[in-house]
Amino acid sequence: MHNNLVAIFDSVVKRNPGETEFHQAVEEMFDALADVLERHPEFAKLSVLERICEPERQIIFRVPWMDDSGEVHVNRGFRVEFNSVLGPYKGGLRFHPSVTLDTVKFLGFEQIFKNALTGLPIGGGKGGSDFDPKGRSDAEIMRFCQSFMTELYRHLGENTDVPAGDIGVGARETGYMFGQYKRITNRYESGVFTGKGLDWGGARVRKEATGFGAAIFTNEMLKTKGDSLQDKRVIVSGSGKVALYVIKKVHQLGGVVVACSDSAGSVYDKDGLDLDLLIQMKEVDRLRIADYSKKRGDSSEYHVGKSVWELAEMANAQVALPCATQNELHEKDAKLLVANGLIALAEGANMPSTPDAIRVFKQEKILFAPGKAANAGGVATSALEMQQNASRQSWSYEETEKRLEEIMIAIHETCVATAEECGSPGDYILGANVAAFEKVARTMLAMGVI
Questions:
Q1: Fewer beta carbons under 10 A from the terminal one: N or C of the chain?
Q2: Does position 1 have pLDDT exceeding 70, yes or no?
Q3: pLDDT tens-digit series, residues 381-434
Q4: Domain 55-189 matches domain 207-369 at the CATH topology level
Q5: Is pLDDT of 272 > 90?
Q6: Up-side HSE of residue 269: CA atoms within 13 Å toward CB?
Q7: Can you give the residue ranges of every domain in the chain?
Q8: Which residue in the list 90, 105, 126, 182 is annotated as catalytic?
Q9: pLDDT given for residue 45 in this prediction
Q10: Over the stretch 329-371, which tens digit does the pLDDT of each residue have?
């Protein structure tokens, strides 16, 4: 890290004790900014870095709800409205037992820059709860969502803060929350939530967008080497929406995905994953990867308790797409992937690679795309949903997918051009961080000390 940034980073750590994931996200950004401060000393003079690391607003609240047996539970809700200089706060809500203020702050910080890279007028925020929807009835999930929104609604608005889904929050949860928002406010503001159902203001391609975008970005990276996803063996972590639809787009682009995972284990399929069966089991039947393996038959091997990266030797994948959660891919996993033929990796999840793993990829000159660039397709399509809601329009699947592709190609071009300007061609981490930071920082200066 540049010497000028060490003191600022130390103050961030001191002010936010114990928030290791947030520290990690800030450190990754700061590592890329030495050249920026040389070219723009005004950023340091006017404390842009200190301001950008401090959320504009942090909201923590109690969420009481009653289960089907009449027992009352209490969860904690969060919304971190991090930075709004480019537009209303925009970022998902995550329902998972692991959610803490640290989780939400790191995600919100990343969201600022991811949203800036899309070129669309949206700021950065994130939220969620330590509520676990797994194993809960629809009625219990509805009661929780209504209680959650009874507090959060007062902080939202289509020109203020626009949430979407994330881990544990799909169309069902979004519907319950939007319904409660509408009920309390007595307003039908379809633009206050994204990821809605198609019958009530949702955008086509939204559920596919993050996965599709990550695959498109990966293909663009490979094109810089005169290559593509055609005939590539690919390994994917996770089996949620991002993973399912990155698999679909990889298949459309000619690659074959041979492994994926969930929290209980991983599956390897030597013939390539059967996407139709996988979507049926995960999105319709809400079953586990182990159940997919049973139905798939002899070509499939299920490995209980193993991460998908432990299957690297049998997968022999040239491309890896981590699409599960933060800090899931470690140094030993990176070395195993490289030893078995890896040439490119794009982060479909937010910060899934640890710093040690990233160092391995950089040392081995692996094409590596950070999440703020590679997985920006989801929030970009959310912003397109906001446009449609504002104009009372509904675009076709083909038009929305075309716009998504254009945005992802533009993000790739921005990262490449910025890295070259900084004297580090091919460094997507540098390109993404510098391009996004400079855009946000310039806008903050233009608006004064706020």
A1: C
A2: no
A3: 999 999 999 999 999 999 999 999 999 999 999 999 999 999 999 999 999 999
A4: yes
A5: yes
A6: 24
A7: 1-53+430-450, 55-189, 207-369
A8: 126
A9: 82
A10: 999 999 999 999 999 999 999 999 999 999 999 999 999 999 9
379 half-sphere exposure, CB direction, 13 A CA radius: 38
The CATH number of 55-189, from 2.60.40.10, 3.40.50.10860, 3.40.630.30, 2.30.30.240, is 3.40.50.10860
Q: Note the CATH number of domain 207-369.
A: 3.40.50.720
> How confident is the model over 165-208, as pLDDT tens digits?
999 999 999 999 999 999 999 999 999 999 999 999 999 999 99
Tell me the whole-structure pTM to 2 decimals. Answer: 0.95
CA 286/CA 172 separation, integer angstroms: 13
For all residues of the chain together, what is the average pLDDT? 96
Task: State yes or no: is 126 an active-site residue.
Answer: yes
CB 25 within 8 A of CB 16: no
Is-contact 79 59, C-beta < 8 A?
yes
What is the distance between the alpha carbons of residues 217 and 376, in angstroms, rounded to a whole number?
10
